[in-house]
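Dear Dr. H.,

I hope your travels went smoothly. While you were away I took the liberty of generating a structure for the chain from your last submission, since the lab meeting agenda had it listed for discussion. I wanted you to have the full record in hand beforehand rather than looking at slides cold. The sequence, exactly as received, is reproduced here:
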Amino acid sequence: MVATEDIGNAVAGLLVGGWSGKKIIELGNRISPDDLARAMSEVLGRPVQARSIPREQWTASLKARGVPPGFAGPFEEMEDAFSSGWIDFGVPGTGSVAGKVTPGQLFAQNGPSA
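The corresponding predicted structure, in token form, is as follows:
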């Protein structure tokens, strides 16, 4: 997961960094659902608990949350790839840029008082 601010800063740094050729960068941090729930709890001042949605309910759940037709399938493929380990950090030959904005900072910026 990564904040858009971190994406913009990383891309700007790469653009002015003076490199040529092909460069692959892993951008973001390994953040668990429990980490996100803890950050939300702190910002909201009330308990938040992460709970998984069973795989067979993903499509209906995404649709109920307003995901337009045609977008649920690619999202599900991405989540399957993360769950299976096909997408992961630490791929040989890639650079790594950690995000600096924490989930708590992001939620506080965009929370109920924002």
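Two observations you may find useful: Strands lie at 25-27, 95-97. The longest helix spans residues 4-16.

With kind regards,
E. W.
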